[in-house]
TrEMBL record:
<dbReference type="InterPro" id="IPR036426">
    <property type="entry name" value="Bulb-type_lectin_dom_sf"/>
</dbReference>
<keyword id="KW-0732">Signal</keyword>
<dbReference type="InterPro" id="IPR011009">
    <property type="entry name" value="Kinase-like_dom_sf"/>
</dbReference>
<dbReference type="Pfam" id="PF08276">
    <property type="entry name" value="PAN_2"/>
</dbReference>
<keyword id="KW-1133">Transmembrane helix</keyword>
<feature type="domain" description="Protein kinase">
    <location>
        <begin position="501"/>
        <end position="669"/>
    </location>
</feature>
<protein>
    <submittedName>
        <fullName>Uncharacterized protein</fullName>
    </submittedName>
</protein>
<feature type="domain" description="Apple">
    <location>
        <begin position="338"/>
        <end position="419"/>
    </location>
</feature>
<dbReference type="InterPro" id="IPR000858">
    <property type="entry name" value="S_locus_glycoprot_dom"/>
</dbReference>
<feature type="domain" description="Bulb-type lectin">
    <location>
        <begin position="22"/>
        <end position="143"/>
    </location>
</feature>
<keyword id="KW-1015">Disulfide bond</keyword>
<dbReference type="Pfam" id="PF00954">
    <property type="entry name" value="S_locus_glycop"/>
</dbReference>
<dbReference type="InterPro" id="IPR001480">
    <property type="entry name" value="Bulb-type_lectin_dom"/>
</dbReference>
<keyword id="KW-0472">Membrane</keyword>
<keyword id="KW-0325">Glycoprotein</keyword>
<keyword id="KW-0812">Transmembrane</keyword>
<dbReference type="Pfam" id="PF07714">
    <property type="entry name" value="PK_Tyr_Ser-Thr"/>
</dbReference>
Length: 669
């Protein structure tokens, strides 16, 4: 029983060690083909693999949590293992050794430091490190794979040079998809002249980043705004390197060299499609090819041909240049004369020239930089070393200016040496342009001022005319009020009396306009005739009518109490007759007989005394229209005359107008 229990425990321990992911091995342990180290977060794995169709075995690191095996680091790139007998161990000295059949070493690290308790660990950062088992400080690592990159740059990895040790971290592409051994496409920092990132194809400088200007590389001015990663370039006494970090750590992004296409590519992982998506590529366009336009040429993708000579330069060999052979480049249009003095012109938004023959100073300002360059007859261009915070530092180039690229936006300003006459010509052109612009702006401002003056004058004149009209109207109204000796009612008083001209208070409507019943604040009832805007009657006609009616005041007529003039409103205010219109009496079946009897009873001599006053052009002289609207007093007779006066309205109706357009007023003789 005890034997079976012991056997089961051993099998459980062996099975657990085989299935549990580990990220570390010690000198007492090893990693054989078929087993892997897995980073603690499960994102990366270290083990043996065969690339493409090859049967060779390599020790490498790859993404562990995606379905596609993308190897990012290879240990034995040059010496593959031909079978599955590879074995990885870490010795007590801290040296890592990859052996075949546990005998022949095909790859190893060179560690000279003394290590007390060495362990080999695969970190979540994708970095394989040798460290003391009791010390996890990155500064104290004895060895790390990030110092020996393959073809892929990962976040946090430095590509550059340690000036203290001479360690040169450089990317080298795989020769092919089946062969991870180094190809001839490389990418790294070059210190010839001043540092910049360079992609080489063999010995040929294939692409370069341009000088670092504090915000980015001048050859990639718009890269800073990308949403995937941020980056920096360190340049000090101890090291020079390029490094990048992911803005979102949940995003997977890698930077890899492609030998087949001779490009540097950046990919990001798309979890939805489970594929890598190309994010950027370098060289990205035709003008990214290093030295395409020859010395003193300027490559512009927006022009045809793309290669142009710099301003104040001309093709060195015109015939060859016109046949699209730009290798000889350009020369100054006018020879320089350093002794008598040269000048500089500015070209903007460019990638700075190749830094091979350049010099920098971090403390000088741009004015000092210009003066120093002008004193050196070999200095052909200068600019700020750092473009942030208003610009600082000095960068100068000597001899021919190679590999300048023109951008539409961003880019850097570059000051190029030309002859004094051409520099003055540039200044004169600027002055001329300034004069032209100043003249145009002045003319536009003058035109605007003239328009404003005219507009203001018209408004002033209009205001004066309106003020004059208002004053004239007020004076006229005042004069008329005095002439008529009638009460002038305020518009608000009438509005309140008629309940804002309520339909319920409407008595009728004629050619003059509607008639409303109203009650003043003292209780007096009034009838308000409101001039209709479609009546065609103006202010003068209205005043004439008021004058006429005012003169016709009589005890036997409906009394005119006053008027109201407010803006376009014209109103007459009469005393109110509480009984209905005369037509209700004349045309009533019972009352009409009495009317006829009364008419027959009037003596002929009295009829002659009846005078008819016809107002054929001034509208109605009473607030009631002719017969259908003649009002009666409370005694059901014409006010105060006991039917001794006859009101007639039997005039001929004019074509196109109402009969009540011609009212009749009856007065005693």
């Amino acid at each position: 029983m005890g034997f079976y229990f012991y056997s089961a425990c051993c099998l459980f321990i062996i099975f657990s060690k085989a299935t549990t992911a580990i990220d570390t091995i010690s000198p007492s342990e090893s990693l054989s083909d078929g087993r892997t180290l897995i980073s603690s977060d499960g994102s990366f794995a270290l083990g043996f693999f065969s690339p493409g169709t090859s049967k060779n075995r390599y020790l490498g690191i790859w993404y562990n949590n995606i379905p596609i095996q993308n190897v990012v680091w290879v240990a034995n790139r040059v010496n593959p293992v031909n079978d599955s007998t590879g074995l990885l161990k870490i010795e007590t000295s801290g040296k890592i050794v990859l052996r075949v059949q546990n005998t022949t070493a095909v790859w190893s690290t060179n560690t000279t430091a003394s290590v007390q308790n060495p362990v080999l660990q695969l970190l979540d950062s994708r970095n394989l490190v040798v460290r003391d088992g009791n010390d996890s400080n990155p500064e104290n690592y004895y060895w790390q794979s990030f110092d020996y990159p393959s073809d892929t740059m990962l976040p946090g990895m430095k590509i550059g040079i340690d000036l203290r040790t001479g360690l040169h971290r450089i990317l080298a592409a795989w020769k092919s998809w089946d062969d991870p051994s180094p190809g001839d496409l490389t990418y790294g920092v070059e210190l010839e002249g001043n540092p910049e990132m360079v992609l080489r194809k063999g010995v040929e400088k294939y692409y370069r980043s341009g000088l670092w200007n504090g915000d980015g590389f001048s050859g990639s001015p718009n890269l800073r705004s990308n949403p995937i990663f941020d980056y920096d370039f360190a340049w000090n006494e101890t090291e020079v390197y390029y490094i990048y970090f992911l803005k979102n750590k949940s995003v997977m992004s890698r930077f890899v060299l492609n030998q087949t296409e001779s490009v540097r590519q950046r990919y990001t992982w798309n979890p939805e499609t489970q594929t890598w998506k190309l994010f950027s590529i370098m060289p990205s366009d035709y003008c990214d090819r290093c030295g395409l336009c020859g010395p003193n040429g300027n490559c512009d993708n927006n022009k045809l041909p793309a290669c142009q000579c710099l301003t104040r330069f001309k093709p060195k060999l015109l015939e060859r240049w016109n046949s699209s052979d730009w290798s000889d480049g350009c020369i100054h249009s006018k020879p320089l004369n350093c002794q008598t003095g040269d000048g500089f012109i500015k070209i903007g938004k460019v990638k700075t020239p190749d830094t091979t023959n350049s010099w920098v100073n971090k403390t000088m300002n741009l004015k000092e930089c210009r003066a120093k360059c002008l004193r050196n007859c070999y200095c052909m261009a200068y600019t700020n070393l750092d473009v942030t915070r208003g610009g600082s530092g000095c960068a100068m180039w000597f001899g021919d200016l190679d590999d300048i690229k023109q951008f539409e936006s961003d880019g850097q300003d570059l000051y190029i040496r030309v002859s004094a006459s051409e520099a003055e010509q540039k200044k004169r052109a600027k002055v001329k342009l300034g004069i032209i612009l100043g003249t145009v702006i002045a003319a536009l401002l003058g035109f605007v001022l003239v328009i404003c003056y005219i507009h203001r004058s018209r408004r002033t004149l209009k205001d004066k005319v309106e003020d004059k009209n208002v004053n004239d109207n007020e004076n006229e109204n005042k004069d008329e009020d005095e002439d008529m000796e009638l009460a002038v009612f305020a518009f608000g008083t009438i509005v309140q009396a008629t309940d804002t001209f309520s339909f319920n208070n409407k008595l009728g409507e004629g050619g003059f306009g509607p008639v409303y019943k109203g009650t003043l604040a003292n209780g007096q009832e009034i009838a308000v005739k409101r001039l209709s805007k479609s009546s065609g009657q103006g202010l003068n006609e209205f005043k004439n009518e008021v004058k006429l009616i005012a003169k016709l005041q009589h005890r036997n007529l409906v009394r005119l109490l006053g008027c109201c003039i407010h803006g376009d409103e014209r109103m007459l205010i009469y005393e109110y007759m509480p009984n209905r219109s005369l037509d209700s009496f004349i045309f009533d079946q019972i009352r009409s007989k009495a009317w006829r009897l009364w008419e027959e009873a009037i003596p002929t001599e009295d009829k002659r005394n009846i005078s008819l006053l016809v107002s054929s052009s001034l509208g109605h002289t009473s607030y009631f229209p002719p017969p259908p609207k003649i009002k009666l007093c409370t005694s059901q007779g014409v006010k105060g005359i006991d039917f001794q006066f006859l009101f007639l309205n039997n005039l001929k109706k004019k074509p196109g107008s109402e009969l009540n357009k011609y009212g009749v007023v009856i007065t005693p003789s």
